[in-house]
Amino acid sequence: MKIAPPYLIFLGDTPIAELAKTGAGLVHWRPERCLAQLRFTGCAADLGVAEMSVGQAANAGARTLVIGTAPPGGQLPGHWIDTLEEALAAGLDVASGLHQKLTDIPRLAEAADRHGRQLFDVRHTDSDFPVASGKPRTGHRLITVGTDCAVGKKYTALAIEREMGARGMKADFRATGQTGILIAGEGVAIDAVVADFIAGATETLCPANDPDHWDIVEGQGSLFHPAFAGVTLGLLHGAQADFFVVCHEAGRQRLSAGYEGYPSGDLAACIKWTQALGALVRPEIACAGISVNTASLAEEDAKTYLAGLGEQNGVAAVDPVRFGVSPIVDALEKAT
Amino acid sequence: MKIAPPYLIFLGDTPIAELAKTGAGLVHWRPERCLAQLRFTGCAADLGVAEMSVGQAANAGARTLVIGTAPPGGQLPGHWIDTLEEALAAGLDVASGLHQKLTDIPRLAEAADRHGRQLFDVRHTDSDFPVASGKPRTGHRLITVGTDCAVGKKYTALAIEREMGARGMKADFRATGQTGILIAGEGVAIDAVVADFIAGATETLCPANDPDHWDIVEGQGSLFHPAFAGVTLGLLHGAQADFFVVCHEAGRQRLSAGYEGYPSGDLAACIKWTQALGALVRPEIACAGISVNTASLAEEDAKTYLAGLGEQNGVAAVDPVRFGVSPIVDALEKAT
């Protein structure tokens, strides 16, 4: 799955700006892939890039229309389909991270076929993956893990990739979820892979590489999540990581989104378990840092809190949004 | 997926008796479901049950033809298809645990359609499962785990179910792999489920039950296996087990079947990890025993070895084939 840039980011009539998180992520992390946005009247989101119609974007060289927003309820609104069909007719592919598959919408499937274009449903996968080999392979691989879902694993991975790039290190972000895949233009929606192939698909995603090359693998779920820990572990094993960064949200006491019966994972336990379980496939695996969303704290309190965490756990602790991930990349440079 | 008994077990022209393991398991564990076997000239396997043709079996009330053998290479031999089609025409369903799907063979798919019969590909699943809720539920659940694949997890679970049944305890074997599903007539091929739903599918497989009811869940893979540990962990969490039994093969030093680069899981570590990880969803989870294949040892040596294991780990250690699982069920009765 390779999604061709540049993108026309479709926002439709998004009623609340925050729903356009995917589009915002694209512009933040891959501005060079983002040509323009397409908004309907009443759209509450604005990504701060050029406004174009399908025709204008096609003339300007756009290759893919990417749905950059989440419709309430997850279903593609019927009145968006005309625009997607227009994009296919104008020679663009269409990419979506929604649950509902574009390929299941007959009008779009037929239009893609007729115009020889591709529909990318990045939340799904129909690839055949191998069973993991477990064989050692060259290259550095870092994976982000978390004390819960939605604690910044994708953001942290992208921030580390960017910081490494800025320092001239060879680094690639490896996407495992729908937003990450749209940002990177490729990847594997790991939670959509058949169970037997979780680790194998991950091996495919981040294969052997130069000894000084870094794959920064986006983690999924949490070892402390009752629904998704199996995915987390299969991904950890397939990644064969020599380093991991633990992501956390300051003040979160309980798991989120329907799992409030469970406590949020403990940071020290998350380090211990990731190290113990990851060592099966890469004995030297080590924690390279802690990445925390401290939005609930005042800036000075956040600094004190992070300093304390770093001291308790013997690694750098950062808020990647507020203060950047430099201390983590410093530690990685030192350790290798 | 409910496969109706009684079965006509199809063995075709199996060249080596050991390939008919599925048929042998059916006759061993569910003799009451097995009406007869169907063998071609030259078949090296014999399950010791009545011989019947498709017509005879249909007249005698057979409901399903079950493929009870593994063709070399895993592909269904072309010259078997006539017989399967004949079974469909005679009013039987057809069930298979092969990789190759019956439903992908046009002649069989059409015949099933024409005669209103079902094709069961138990290694595959097309059900929609929910994401796991992680909510506590009533009933006892025991899961078998292992230091490797193929160390007797299915056998041990079935032996415990049988022993409990003999004692008048309420117990159901819950199948998670193809052979187990053919034996039980139902279940979920857990390694064929999409990653996001491993734990959720397992919750569906062994839902809340009477407080004195036992679900004996067939484990898969191993926490020590680089390709399948994610499946093992998702299954452990979905099962929400209050007890587990660790399965092992005496003398196995390395993982099997292509993973010889890895040591076999350590028994004590397997107990420790299963307990620690299983406690996420059921804090009281405890090891109920160790079940070992001691076929490589002389009988007296096996007894000494098991006694030593039991003492070291503080639980009953048995060889379920040689000596039965009574000590484990004793311990479970005592503990509950």
What is the strand and helix layout of this fold?
The structure is a homodimer of 336-residue chains.
Chain A: E1 7-12, H1 21-29, E2 34-39, H2 54-59, E3 64-67, H3 81-89, E4 93-96, H4 106-115, E5 119-121, E6 140-146, H5 153-166, E7 170-174, H6 178-184, H7 198-205, E8 213-217, H8 229-239, E9 243-249, H9 267-278, E10 286-293, H10 299-313, E11 317-318, H11 326-335
Parallel strand pairs in A: 1-2, 1-3, 3-4, 4-5, 6-8, 6-9, 7-8, 9-10, 10-11
Helix pairs in contact in A: 3-4, 7-8
Structural notes for this entry:
2 copies of one chain form a homodimer. The first copy, chain A, has 2 domains: 7-121, 3-Layer(aba) Sandwich (Rossmann fold), CATH 3.40.50.720; 140-335, Rossmann fold (3-Layer(aba) Sandwich). Chain A is 33% helix and 17% strand. The first copy, chain A, is built from 11 helices and 11 strands. The first copy, chain A, has helices at residues 21-29, 54-59, 81-89, 106-115, 153-166, 178-184, 198-205, 229-239, 267-278, 299-313, 326-335, and strands spanning 7-12, 34-39, 64-67, 93-96, 119-121, 140-146, 170-174, 213-217, 243-249, 286-293, 317-318. In chain A, the strands form 2 sheets. Chain A has a 6-stranded parallel sheet, sandwiched between helices. In chain A, strands 2-1-3-4-5 form a 5-stranded parallel sheet, with helices on both faces. In chain A, helix 9 (267-278) links the parallel strand 9 and strand 10. Chain A is globular. The interface between A and B is large, with 38 and 38 residues.
